[in-house]
Design goal:
127 residues, mainly beta, seven-stranded mixed β-sheet, four-stranded antiparallel β-sheet, 3% helix
Length: 127
């Protein structure tokens, strides 16, 4: 099993930057693939970014490409999401999620394929 705790959320002006962190804890946390999802009020939860267990493979939603960067440090048991050029439409609760054995883009972008989730952290982008 793995536990995930997000941090780094807050209030930022449009065009600004934030870095989210996800701390993983458990017996074999370095074997888990990790994704970031977000959910705005009244909207469906959507995929943001993905990084595999060893950090050699990443995948982004089209609207995040060029603005967001996902990375991980397995020594520190941390996964990061660097968010640049933030827009008001980025306002949402951001969640870190994990799963062993994800492969295709269809699998890694579907929240139903993740079986471990953090509590979420609020990002508010003001205009």
């Amino acid at each position: 099993q793995v536990q995930l705790v997000e941090s780094g959320g807050g209030l930022v002006q449009a065009g600004g930057s934030l870095r989210l962190s996800c701390l993983l804890s458990g017996r074999t946390v370095s074997t888990y693939n990790t994704g970031w999802f977000r959910q705005a009020p009244g909207k469906e939860r959507e995929f943001v970014a993905y990084i595999n267990w060893n950090g050699y493979s990443t995948y982004y939603a089209d609207s995040m490409k060029g603005r967001f960067t996902i990375s991980r440090d397995n020594t520190k048991k941390m996964v990061y999401l660097q968010m640049n050029g933030l827009k008001p439409e980025d306002t949402a609760v951001y969640y870190c999620a994990a799963r062993i054995g994800l492969t295709s883009a269809a699998q890694i972008t579907d929240q139903q394929n993740y079986n471990y989730w953090g509590q979420g952290t609020q990002i508010t982008v003001s205009s």
